[in-house]
Prior knowledge:
By secondary structure, the chain is mainly alpha-helical. Among the domains are: 6-52, Single Sheet (Rubrerythrin, domain 2); 75-232 and 389-406, Orthogonal Bundle (Citrate Synthase, domain 1), CATH 1.10.580. It contains 18 helices and 6 strands. The protein has helices spanning 35-39, 75-81, 84-93, 99-111, 117-123, 132-146, 159-185, 198-207, 218-231, 238-247, 253-265, 272-285, 290-299, 319-334, 340-352, 356-360, 368-377, 385-406, and strands at 6-11, 14-22, 28-30, 59-62, 67-70, 73-74. Helix 2 (75-81) packs antiparallel against helix 9 (218-231). The protein binds acetyl coenzyme *A.
Amino acid sequence: MSTHAQATVTLDGKTYDFPVVTGSEGERAIDISGLRKRAGIITLDYGYNNTGACNSAVTYLDGERGVLRYRGYPIEELAEKSRFVEVAYLLINGKMPDAREREEWSLLLNRHSMIHEDMRHFFYRFPDHAHPMAILSAMVVSLSAFYPELSQHRQDEGNEAINIAATRLLSKLRTIAAFSYKKSIGEPFVYPRHDLRYCANFLNMMFSSPVSNYEIKPAVVKALNVLLILHADHEQNCSTSAVRLVGSARVNLYAAVAAGICGLWGPLHGGANQMVVEMLEEMRAQRETPRDRLEKVKNSKGAELLYGFGHRVYKSFDPRAKVIKDCCDKVLKALKINDPLLDLAMELEDLALHDDYFLSRSLYPNVDFYSGIVYRAIGIPKEMFTVMFALGRLPGWIAHWKEAREDPRFKLQRPRQVYAGPGLRHLKPQEVSSEYTVTTSVKS
Ligand code: ACO
C-alpha cells in the first residue's frame, strides 16, 4: 500500500487533506478515517456501495473487467488445475501447499472430520421440515461449546490453536452438511471415511446408505471441486463482511462463521441459487415462457427479480458464471442428463442479454444462475444448495477472520448513522406505565 497522493475536502470554506492509498493492483481509495475528528462530519454511503472497510490480501476482484483472483491466482486456472482443499489452504495460508504440506493438510482434515457424538443427537431435535441452513448455523455456533479451546477474546492466541480451529471447522462443516441432509430424508448418518478425499468423502456421506453403496464418479467429484473453488472467496461480500464485523467484537471463529452462514442464507446473496431453481420449476409447472417471465419482472417495478441475475460489483460479467456454465455442460454430458430446466435457463439468459431493461442496468448472470443445475445433476436437493455454497465459502470466511485478527488496525466495527427520527419529546401522562402512575385519593 502506498500513500503518495492527497484528496482535499472543502466544507464550509475550510479545506482538509486526506491521504489517497493505492493498492497492489492500482486501486485507489481516500482514507477519510480522520474526517469526523477534524471536520465534525461523517460520510454516508447506503449499502456500503462505495466504502472500503479494510485492506485485504486475500482476493482481487475487478468488477468492470470481470476479473477474480485468489491470492493472485486467476480462478479459471484454479478451477481447472486444483482441488478445493488446496485452494482452501491457499486462501487461509497465503500460498499453495507443497507436496509435504498437502499430505499433512489431508491428514489433519481427516483427523478432524468426526463430530462429537453428543452433537449428533442435536440433529434429531430439529423438526423434519427444518431448513438445512438453520441447522448448519446452529451446529456451527454449537462447535464453540464442544471445542472451546479457542478463547473468545484473546488477540495473542497462538497460530497453532487458530489453525486447529480452522481445520476442524473445514472438516466438520462437511460432515454437518451431509448429516443435515440425511436427517431431512430420515436416513441413518454415514460417517466420514479416511480413505476418501474431501469431495468424494462428502458425496459418500450424502448418498451412501446401509443398503446401497454410492458409486463415486470422477466427473461428479470434479464438478463439485470446481463449484466449491468458485465459491471459496469473494472479498468483502455480505456474509464475509458479517464474519469480519461480528469477529471485530473478538468472538471466536465458530461464532463469527455462524453469522456468515446466516448472512449467506438470504435470497439476495447465497440463497439465490435455491431461488433460481424454484423460479425455473415454477415456470415449467405453470407453462410460463421465458419471454412472459421477463415481462413480469420488468413490469413489477422491482418487486419481482430475475434470480441469478445482477451483482453489486460485476457490471460486465461474473467470471464465475462462465466457468460454471462450462462445468454444467460437461457434467450433464458425462452423466447423460437432459435437464429441461437447463433449456429454460439458457433461453432466459439469451433473452435477458438482448433486452434493454437488463442491459441498461448491467444485469448479467451471476454465480448462482447455473450452479443449481449442476447441483441437481449430481443429486443434491435444492434445499441444500445454499449449504453447498457455505461449504465452498468457508475457507474465505476463515481467511478473512484470520487476516482481520492479525491486522494491528483491526478495530471494533461500528458504523455511524444520520439520525432521522423525532426531536426531543417527553411522555404524556397517558403514556406513563401504570406501575409508575401516582394515584392520589382526595378525602372530603
Ligand atoms: N432482476 C430484475 N431487476 C433487477 C435485478 C434482477 N435480478 N437485479 C437488479 N435489478 C434492478 C433493480 O430493480 C434496479 O432497478 P431500478 O434502477 O429501476 O430501480 C437496478 O436493477 C439496480 O439494482 P440494485 O438493487 O440497486 O443493485 P444492487 O447492486 O444493489 O443489487 C443484487 C445487487 C442484490 C445482487 C441484485 O442484482 C439482485 O437482487 N439480484 C437477484 C438476486 C441474486 O441473484 N443474488 C445473488 C447475487 S450473487 C451472490 O451474492 C452470491
